[in-house]
């Protein structure tokens, strides 16, 4: 086998954890989204490229980018909307927590590519190609997310300043952003590529999936939603029926469009293009639906409940799982052929086995790393000690007079 490359707390109170500014619903949305992105990669590499069913599932699972970037903008603005932002400190922290893991994992995956099935390059060419992978976000198929996030971190102080200066115009800004997003998606999908691939426009065109402006609407939507958090939360709660209807209708439209593309002769892979403008309604309603699910779940949790702690722990580890799971998937598909007899076809059995293997082994890896001094540089998370610190002894009280 080979790889192609208890009583419910009041809603307003329950959505925020005991920690300052922490939103429990975001934890659940993050976990569900990371679980979905692993499914995207597993389905892609365990099914035949001509499988209409597999790529139909991928059509609906490609929402993950939009949710990722909505959450990125949402969490940042929610954190800084009512307090000053020191740009230098913000950039240093974000570049440390995301930039260092990005460079290290890009180097790791690039090294794997060089060692497997390729002739080793001379050192100068190796470094040139590695640098190309770093600045283009193409070290491995999932690392674009970190590069886009880093681009947004650079822009974020300016974005926040604009939002604070234009409070009365946020609806207009969001509508303009949506129009721009549709225009970008139309151009990326239907316009011919520039004649000169080495020009600036040609380079931007070739790397559209790793550029922040390809996702600007969802980033900005997350920012605006968090800026008006209380109103957004109330709107989500009051419009659940609209969200569910929109989710169903947009899913039907997305699958219909997938069928139309197939009918016009596109391969299943081309028919499920991520950046197609026709997919935008589905992406938008999935963002709203997942946030609604997260909010309802959070409203039913008591502070410190078992499920709240489990989801919070999973959320804390999700970024590390995201970073390492392609390596685990690669190992499964390339090193454990003996697990699958030759008569076992690609499809559901292989997909489920690969998914379980990738998730479990990635969690084990992260659970080890997060308890070592390498936690911040490898998975962008603070180290967790292997043992809980002993509780402080109470100070002796003076005897009563």
UniProtKB/TrEMBL annotation:
GO terms for molecular function: O-acetyltransferase activity. It is found in: Cell membrane. GO terms for cellular component: plasma membrane. The keyword Cell cycle does not apply. Its main location: membrane. The chain crosses the membrane at residues 28-46, 52-78, 99-118, 138-161, 173-191, 211-230, 242-260, 280-298, 310-332, 352-370. It comes from the Bacteria. InterPro entries: Acyl_transf_3_dom. It is a multi-pass membrane protein. The keyword Transmembrane helix applies. Keywords: Cell membrane, Membrane, Transmembrane, Transmembrane helix. Residues 25-365 form the Acyltransferase domain. GO terms for biological process: enterobacterial common antigen biosynthetic process. PANTHER family: O-ACETYLTRANSFERASE WECH. Belongs to the acyltransferase 3 family. This is Peptidoglycan/LPS O-acetylase OafA/YrhL. It comes from Kutzneria kofuensis. The lineage of its organism: Bacteria, Bacillati, Actinomycetota, Actinomycetes, Pseudonocardiales.
């Amino acid at each position: 086998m080979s790889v192609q490359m208890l009583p419910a707390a009041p809603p307003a109170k329950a959505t925020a954890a005991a920690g300052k500014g922490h939103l429990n619903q975001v934890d659940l949305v993050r976990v569900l989204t990371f679980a979905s992105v692993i499914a995207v990669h597993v389905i892609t590499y365990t099914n035949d490229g001509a499988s209409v069913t597999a790529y139909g599932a991928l059509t609906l699972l490609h929402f993950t980018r939009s949710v990722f970037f909505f959450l990125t903008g949402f969490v940042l603005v929610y954190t800084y909307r009512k307090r000053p932002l020191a740009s230098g400190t913000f950039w240093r922290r974000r570049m440390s927590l995301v930039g260092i893991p990005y460079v290290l994992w890009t180097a790791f995956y690039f090294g794997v590519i060089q060692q497997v099935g390729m002739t080793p390059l001379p050192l100068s060419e190796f470094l040139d190609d590695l640098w190309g992978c770093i600045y283009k976000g193409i070290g491995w198929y999932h690392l674009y997310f970190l590069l886009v996030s880093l681009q947004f971190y650079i822009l974020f102080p300016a974005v926040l300043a604009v939002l604070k200066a234009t409070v009365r115009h946020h609806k207009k800004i969001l509508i303009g952003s949506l129009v721009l997003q549709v225009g970008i998606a139309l151009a990326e999908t239907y316009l011919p590529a520039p004649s000169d691939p080495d020009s600036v426009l040609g380079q931007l065109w070739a790397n559209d999936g790793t550029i922040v402006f390809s996702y600007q609407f969802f980033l900005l939507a997350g920012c605006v939603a968090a800026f008006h958090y209380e109103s957004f939360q109330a709107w989500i709660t009051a419009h659940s029926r609209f969200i569910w209807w929109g989710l169903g209708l947009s899913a039907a439209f997305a699958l219909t469009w997938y069928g139309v593309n197939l009918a016009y002769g596109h391969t299943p892979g081309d028919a499920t293009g991520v950046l197609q403008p026709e997919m935008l309604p589905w992406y938008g309603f999935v963002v709203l639906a997942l946030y609604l699910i997260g909010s309802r779940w959070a409203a039913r949790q008591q502070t410190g409940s078992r499920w709240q702690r489990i989801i919070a722990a999973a959320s804390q580890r999700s970024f590390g799982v995201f970073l390492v799971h392609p390596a685990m998937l690669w190992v499964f598909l390339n090193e454990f052929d003996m697990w699958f007899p030759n008569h076992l076809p690609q499809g559901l059995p292989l997909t489920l086995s690969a998914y379980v293997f990738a998730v479990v082994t990635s969690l084990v890896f992260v659970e080890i790393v997060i308890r070592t001094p390498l936690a911040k540089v490898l998975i962008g998370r603070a180290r967790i000690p292997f043992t809980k610190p002993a509780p402080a002894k109470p100070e002796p009280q003076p005897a009563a007079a």
